[in-house]
């Protein structure tokens, strides 16, 4: 990991001047607007429940006869699928906290038009993280000055469009359907971003206050050269990056743990074969899929095989796409993380309001080819 050479500290170089000029302001904002770690009872209760359920699930993986056994087994299985995404998200968030705000926006583009949204959408596609890891990175991008539309486009394109999950989908539903799903998700991401930025310009939604902290725009190559010269490897810098990444990702981890608990409860109480019998390629099946993906909290690794089952067993490609995309738009972990980061319920709730109608229309059309 990287650390600046000045004074043995991680970030005292000239290129990071902007980051440090506002570090105290950012810390103050966190301390004022977010529950301090020691008083975050919700986080600690969720961590305690998962900490008890996980080892029980590991010891009784084949106990499918009791509610407790299914719950703990579900927590064990889902945590094993999502922990690496959270871990990578912490690392990326820590690294992003050391990159100057101007450089982040130089990559994404400062303009809130189609070009900037397209860059953010492609960044979401090519960043190989699951939904829980990508959410932490998306929230840090907002703090780095990305427009609300860019953040939404990034989040919508990324959770199941990673290279690893794309390869898995190739094998599960075929290359053609996978590429079509990816293309449609890109379209939804750009359209949603345009709508968000338009509502922000009209004043319907609050603008990103961090954009006001951006300095004068500079060439990206010049900023990269300066940053590269000022960085060096050290154990202290690596530890600081991990610590700052954990602090910056705590809001996401909190809701991910809660989602893990809820998903385990649903597994224990809802029959698994209901997906194949209830969610066919019908109008009612499409709405039931929307209801299920809204209630059930699964990470991208968990949603991919379920979507494949909807495609192959229920013969409902539209339901499969809806489960993947609407699951992102209605995910309460994502909604609550957006609310906590932006300090705006309107921004958080406008995500499903804007995205779900697009997903449902596309899902209905896709089901006509079942």
UniProtKB/TrEMBL annotation:
Chief place where the protein resides: membrane
Membrane topology: Multi-pass membrane protein
InterPro entries: DUF318, UPF0718
Keywords assigned: Cell membrane, Membrane, Transmembrane, Transmembrane helix
Annotated compartments: Cell membrane
Transmembrane feature ranges: 41-58, 78-96, 117-142, 162-195, 251-270, 276-296, 347-366
GO cellular component, one term: plasma membrane
Entry keyword rRNA-binding: no
Key word Plastid present: no
Family: Belongs to the UPF0718 family.
Listed name of the protein: ATPase
């Amino acid at each position: 990991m990287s650390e600046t050479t000045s004074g043995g500290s991680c970030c005292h170089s000239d290129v990071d001047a902007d980051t440090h000029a506002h570090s105290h302001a950012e810390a103050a904002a966190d301390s004022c607007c977010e529950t301090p770690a020691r008083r975050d009872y919700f986080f600690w209760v969720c961590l305690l429940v998962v900490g008890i359920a996980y080892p029980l699930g590991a010891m009784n993986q084949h106990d499918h006869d009791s509610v407790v056994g299914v719950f703990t087994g579900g927590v064990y299985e889902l945590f094993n699928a999502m922990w690496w995404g959270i871990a990578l998200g912490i690392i990326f968030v820590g690294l992003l906290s050391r990159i100057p705000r101007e450089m982040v926006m130089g990559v994404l583009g400062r303009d809130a038009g189609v070009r900037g949204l397209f860059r953010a959408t492609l960044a979401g596609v090519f960043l190989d993280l699951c939904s829980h890891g990508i959410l932490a990175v998306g929230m840090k991008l907002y703090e780095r000055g990305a427009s609300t539309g860019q953040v939404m486009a990034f989040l919508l394109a990324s959770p199941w469009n990673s290279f690893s999950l794309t390869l898995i989908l190739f094998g599960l539903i075929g290359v053609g359907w996978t590429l079509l799903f990816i293309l449609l998700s890109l379209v939804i991401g750009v359209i949603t971003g345009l709508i968000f930025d338009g509502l922000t310009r009209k004043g319907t939604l609050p603008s990103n206050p961090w954009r006001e902290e951006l300095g004068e725009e500079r060439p990206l190559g010049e900023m990269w050269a300066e940053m590269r010269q000022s960085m060096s490897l050290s154990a202290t810098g690596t530890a600081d990056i991990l610590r700052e990444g954990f602090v910056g990702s705590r809001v996401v981890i909190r809701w991910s743990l809660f989602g893990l608990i809820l998903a385990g409860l649903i597994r224990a109480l809802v029959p698994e074969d209901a997906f194949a019998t209830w969610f066919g390629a019908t109008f009612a099946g499409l709405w039931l899929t929307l209801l299920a993906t809204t209630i059930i909290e699964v990470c991208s690794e968990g949603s991919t095989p379920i979507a494949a089952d909807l495609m192959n067993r229920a013969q409902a490609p539209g339901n499969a796409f809806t489960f993947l995309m609407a699951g992102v738009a209605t995910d309460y972990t994502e909604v609550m993380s957006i609310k906590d980061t932006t300090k705006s319920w309107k921004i958080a709730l406008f995500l499903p309001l804007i995205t779900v109608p697009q997903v449902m229309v596309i899902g209905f059309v896709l089901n006509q080819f079942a």
